[in-house]
C-alpha cells in the first residue's frame, strides 16, 4: 500500500488513540534510515505531523544519520519524535553484522543537530561475556553523553536465536531460552556502577521511561507504580511521574475497555498502586488500556516479579511476584 494508505490505516485502527498511542515506524523488517526506506519514513512522519498529532513516535536505527536527515526531522512541529540509536559494541559479525561504529557516529550527529526531536542511546542487547567487559561499559558511558537519555536492555534469547548460535558454532550465552529479555542481576549491577562511577548520562531500564524523560513528560506506560524501576531516575522525572500517577477505578478501566471487541472477556483481578491485573485479555488490548490510562495493565498469566519487571527470571534469585 502507499504511505498515505498506511497512515490512514493506522489512525483509523480501533486501538489507536490520538495523542496517546506510542507509534513505531519501520522497526521490524528493515532499518528506517536505509536509503530506499528513509523517503518513506519522512513521508509518514510528515503525514502524521500534518494531522496535529502529538503522539510519541519511536524510530529505531543502527544505520547512518546525516545532518541533512536531521534538518528534515527538525521541521516537524507536533510529534514527539525520538531517534533510538541501537548500539551494542559487539564485534563478532556473525552476531552483529552492522559495525557499531556506524551507530556511534549517527548518535553523535543526531544529538548535535537535535532541535525538534530527541535522541536516545539504545544500548542493546547486553550479553554476558560478549559485550560486557569494562571497556564495553566505559564506551557506553562515553556515548551516553551524546544522548538525551540511555536505555539498556538484554537479549531476547528465544528458540530461533538459540538455533542460530548452535548452527554457527557460537558459544551460547544462556542455558535456557525465555519469552522475556534476559538481564542477569550481576550484569545490571555492573552497568549501574559503571554509569554512577563515571558520571554517565541519564540511564533508564525501560524504553518509555527514557523517551518520556527526553521529552519532559510523564511516562506514557505508567511505570511509576513499579517503584524499584525508578531508583535510577532523575528527581525531575520522578516528580513528573508522581504527579501523573493515579490508579484507575474499576469503573474507569471498564469504561475504556468498552471500546474493545470481546470486552465481555475482561476480568479485573486486582487494582493496586503498582498495576491493574487482568485475566483473559491479550497483549494488544492490554496496551490499549495501559496507554489510555497511563497505568500499568498486567496479565495474570505472566506475573511480574519484583526488581525484574518484564524481564526473564534467568540470572536472578527467585522472589515473590509483584
Automatic annotation (TrEMBL):
Residues 300-322 are annotated as: Disordered. Residues 301-310 have a biased composition (Basic residues). This is Radical SAM protein. The lineage of its organism: Bacteria, Bacillati, Actinomycetota, Actinomycetes, Pseudonocardiales.
Amino acid at each position: 500500500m502507499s504511505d498515505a494508505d498506511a497512515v490512514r490505516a493506522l489512525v483509523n485502527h480501533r486501538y489507536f488513540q490520538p495523542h496517546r498511542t506510542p507509534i513505531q515506524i519501520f522497526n521490524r523488517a528493515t532499518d528506517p534510515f536505509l536509503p530506499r526506506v528513509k523517503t518513506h519514513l519522512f513521508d509518514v512522519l510528515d503525514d502524521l505531523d500534518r494531522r496535529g498529532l502529538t503522539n510519541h513516535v519511536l524510530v529505531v536505527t543502527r544505520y547512518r544519520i546525516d545532518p541533512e536527515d536531521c534538518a528534515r526531522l527538525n521541521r516537524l512541529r507536533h510529534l514527539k519524535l525520538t531517534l533510538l540509536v541501537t548500539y551494542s559494541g559487539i564485534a563478532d559479525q556473525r552476531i552483529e553484522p552492522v559495525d557499531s561504529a556506524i551507530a556511534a557516529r549517527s548518535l553523535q550527529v543526531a544529538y548535535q543537530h537535535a532541535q525538534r526531536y530527541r535522541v536516545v542511546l539504545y544500548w542493546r542487547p547486553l550479553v554476558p561475556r560478549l559485550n560486557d567487559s569494562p571497556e564495553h561499559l566505559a564506551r557506553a558511558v562515553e556515548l551516553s553523553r551524546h544522548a538525551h537519555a540511555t536505555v539498556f536492555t538484554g537479549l531476547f534469547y528465544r528458540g530461533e536465536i538459540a538455533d542460530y548460535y548452535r548452527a554457527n558454532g557460537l558459544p551460547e550465552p544462556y542455558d535456557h531460552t525465555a519469552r522475556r529479555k534476559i538481564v542477569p542481576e550481576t550484569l545490571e549491577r555492573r552497568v549501574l556502577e559503571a554509569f554512577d562511577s563515571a558520571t554517565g548520562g541519564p540511564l533508564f531500564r525501560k524504553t518509555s521511561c527514557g523517551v518520556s524523560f527526553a521529552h519532559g513528560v510523564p511516562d506514557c506506560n505508567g511505570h511509576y507504580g513499579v517503584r524499584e524501576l525508578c531508583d535510577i531516575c532523575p528527581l525531575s522525572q520522578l516528580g513528573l511521574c508522581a504527579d501523573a500517577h493515579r490508579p484507575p477505578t474499576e469503573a474507569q478501566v471498564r469504561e475504556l475497555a468498552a471500546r474493545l471487541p470481546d470486552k465481555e472477556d475482561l476480568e479485573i483481578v486486582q487494582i493496586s498502586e503498582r498495576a491493574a491485573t487482568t485475566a483473559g485479555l491479550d497483549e494488544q488490548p492490554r496496551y490499549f488500556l495501559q496507554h489510555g490510562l497511563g497505568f500499568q495493565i498486567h496479565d495474570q498469566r505472566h506475573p511480574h516479579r519484583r526488581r525484574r519487571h518484564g524481564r526473564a527470571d534467568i540470572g536472578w534469585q527467585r522472589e515473590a511476584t509483584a
